[in-house]
Amino acid sequence: MLQYKTHSQKLNLIKNGKLSLTENVEYFRDSINKNADLNAFNFVFEEVVEESRKIEEKIHDGKYGKLAGMVIAVKDVLALKDKPLTCSSNILKKFKSIYTATAVQKLLDEDALIIGKTNCDEFAMGSSNENSARGVVKNPVNTEFVPGGSSGGSAAAVAAGLCDASLGTDTGGSIRQPASFCGIYGFKPTYGRVSRFGLTAFASSFDTIGPFARSVDDISLLLQVISGKDKYDSTSSDKEVPDFLSEYQNATKLKIGLPQEFFSDGLDPEIRDILYDYISKLKTDGFEIIDIHLPHHEYSIAAYYILTTAEASTNLARYDGVRYTTRSGKKDDLINMYTNTRSEGFGDEVKRRIMLGTYVLSAGYYDAYYAKAQKVRRLIQKDFFDAFEKVDVIITPTSPFTAFKLGEKTSDPLQMYLSDIYTTSANLAGIPGINVPVGSAGNGLPIGMQILANQFEELKLLRLSSYIESNYLKNEVV
Hints:
The protein has 478 residues and is of the alpha/beta class.
């Protein structure tokens, strides 16, 4: 059992000699071993114990970074120099990175401790973390159920208390949905707020990096650290980064929009009732609740899977066995070497998306699918921009249902894709979103609330999330 809930509490315990950072790290390592059945980690780093001694000395000397002693796991699609970068794929099973991702380097610069790399759906393609070459990840709340995907390992590691926080990636809900399934906070920043340098690309115009944690305080701190312009990523924004940590508790009475399309058929009635209960509480406390419409929402899944698979087919063309990937052992000519390498190295879901993407980009189909989906993406984005002229934030369910059983949807890709029906639109529009854990269903599985804001208005999300956390949720040490 941890003695703290937030990093600031942990830091004070270390400063006052009430907590040994080295023992804390060893506790996490022991917990990872004891919970090996969860399969949350691909790699655990031995040197983290020795690093913890150095950081603890810095803390006692009063010369330490903002994240000093925070034990963080990072999704195995983010580069860390001289460490494996497998993307949970056989095609990269022997690959080690030659540089460190900017977001990860920013954690290290502030004295965080990277304890390991977490399991995920292969190349971040999946909604359940059942598509990993390193095996499925299990939900720590109930191991018969999925943790969500694709950042399932990062979510499970935090929910199970195997680290203080983690980094994941979100292309269509891959932070928010597993955070909902595992009962923790998960934050997707605005596209461009956090540098993508060192992130293995799935869909370059959708991918974002964000944190998982057990409190809004830690989410704010991590977002503060990893945000900002990066010369190595031309798509990163030079917009000023607010002081998230000092400003997120300044709760103003926001105007909250409820998109009727997100509360219609297909939503589990139990989730709907719990969310409406919270919305009623917010209304009683002086928040203005406004019904809104996002008329093109029904096209979000179709547009998302056309566009992301198209980008994936291009991004994954580099994995051909010639340069840095595992090459097929079959002796053959060049073309067959490509074919055999990719056939053996990629899993079924990755192959499915490459084929879909290649199809929609092919001659004769480009205008009918890809070009049309780009137009729909712009309409979905405009829906949000129009809505944010009337409201400050939008509340929706994060998922239409709680976590489903392992193997339940693997034979029906379409049903699996519908897991992301409430999350993909934020990536299409490039806006930020957060999952707030707001309770449990009758089956004991967590329920999440999604809050969305306009581009670069992450502070509004943090403020409303903090208000909900402080006023309606139990502030227990987990």
